[in-house]
Design goal:
The complex is a heterodimer of chains A (186) and B (195). Chain A has 186 residues and is mainly alpha-helical. Chain A is 74% helix and 0% strand. The termini of chain A are far apart. Chain B starts with a helix and ends with a strand. Classes of the chains: A mainly alpha (186), B mainly alpha (195). Chains A and B meet through α2, α3, α5, α6 and α8 of A and α1, α3, α4 and α5 of B.
């Protein structure tokens, strides 16, 4: 049976490096993904992730089993770090990939999907920071609505309002791309 | 306060789709069962869910990049116990390097010792000579070979001049005192140092 996050944190507090490795394997990728979607900058996202885990190691001695979900705690720290960077980081929207001279049928599909993905990322970055963060926490990271609302310092109703506005905006802006994607899948 | 089943659930269901999308796994846990029940009975609810699924599909086309190996290394390097985890490998590497150095030194020392032994053996071993004649052999007393006298000598100087060892009685290899110093190439002779 895999050790719980609480058990691992107790071992980390005792200097168990193997426990640290397990926690990194469990949580690092999700924190990087969260920061990447929130900031739109992979390099900044890795810096945020690194800073998040440095704080985790420093906090290990004070961790209390059952006090919180470690994943939620990590996202909260990462969110705060992202907020510090919001004013500094305004990554440019991803440019469209250059069209190959003569793509084969399979490459054409792959290239098209990359175009769609790039366009989606562009539109995500055009959302307000609050809407993008709410959508990233709930849709991409799977954070429960109460935890996400708590992180953002708002009510669940306010969170759902943010999410609804974000989705409506994306739906409108991505409507032409949605048709093309549906045609490819049809 | 409970909602009216028919109306409120439809409106609430629309709000769920607007906020959380089409995947029931993303709906709030406490409302999921009621929403699934509506889906089972309402074609309109199912149509709304299909519309919401289109946006979910597009959002799913932008998978995040995995963390780089460098990031993983940096995070683990800052973790508790990192120094201790790295030390045994370092110590093993140092031990291997020290063993390689000592092995090289041992090999070199062995080679030198072998060379020295060879050189000493060559120096001590008399050069091949013409077999001793029977009358000469008969003259041998204590020593089996001319060089055996070295076994008794403790204060010998390998210098020219002076008395010859064990030549008082005109022993083997000795020359008359007044004889000219012979060409000693290939021969061994000793003289006792003067007191």
């Amino acid at each position: 049976m895999d050790p719980s996050d609480d058990d691992l944190m107790q071992r980390v507090a005792r200097g168990d490096h193997a426990a640290c490795r397990v926690l990194v394997e469990r949580h690092l990728a999700r924190i990087v993904a969260f920061a990447a979607r929130t900031l739109g900058d992979p390099s900044e996202a890795e810096d945020v992730a690194q800073d998040t885990f440095v704080r985790l190691w420093a906090h290990a001695g004070a961790w209390r089993a059952g006090s919180a979900q470690l994943s939620t705690w990590l996202h909260r720290v990462a969110l705060n770090l992202c907020r510090d960077r919001f004013r500094r980081v305004r990554s440019a929207p991803l440019g469209e990939a250059p069209e190959p001279a003569d793509p084969g049928p399979e490459m054409s599909t792959i290239f098209h999907r990359r175009q769609v993905a790039g366009r989606v990322q562009d539109e995500l970055m055009r959302l307000s920071d609050a809407q993008r963060t709410a959508l990233t926490l709930c849709h991409f990271q799977g954070i429960p609505n109460r935890d996400a609302a708590d992180m953002l310092g708002i009510t669940v109703e306010a969170l759902e309002s943010l999410l609804a506005r974000a989705r409506r905006t994306l739906r409108e802006r991505l409507r032409p791309v949605a048709s093309e994607l549906l045609e490819d899948d049809g | 306060m409970s909602r009216e089943t028919a109306t409120m659930e439809a409106a609430r269901f629309a709000a769920l789709l607007d906020a959380y999308g089409a995947d029931p796994a993303r709906w709030p846990e406490e409302e999921r069962a009621a929403a699934l029940a509506l889906l089972a009975t309402s074609s309109d609810a199912r149509a709304r869910q299909r519309e919401a699924a289109a946006l979910d599909a597009m959002l799913g086309t932008a998978p995040p990049a995995p963390p780089s190996d460098l990031l993983v290394a940096r995070v683990l390097a800052a973790a508790p116990g990192a120094a201790a985890a790295a030390r045994p490998a370092t110590d093993r590497a140092r031990a291997r390097a020290a063993w390689r150095r000592s092995r090289r030194a041992a090999i070199a020392a062995a080679a030198l010792a072998a060379a020295a032994s060879l050189a000493l053996w060559i120096a001590r071993t008399p050069a091949p000579e013409t077999p001793l004649a029977a009358d000469v052999i008969a003259e041998l007393s204590v020593y089996g070979m001319p060089g055996d006298v070295l076994l008794d000598v403790t204060d010998v100087e390998l210098l020219g001049g002076g008395d010859w060892i064990d030549c008082e009685a005109g022993g083997l290899g000795c020359l008359p005192p007044d004889a000219a110093t012979p060409d000693i190439t290939g021969e061994l002779y000793l003289e006792r140092s003067h007191a």
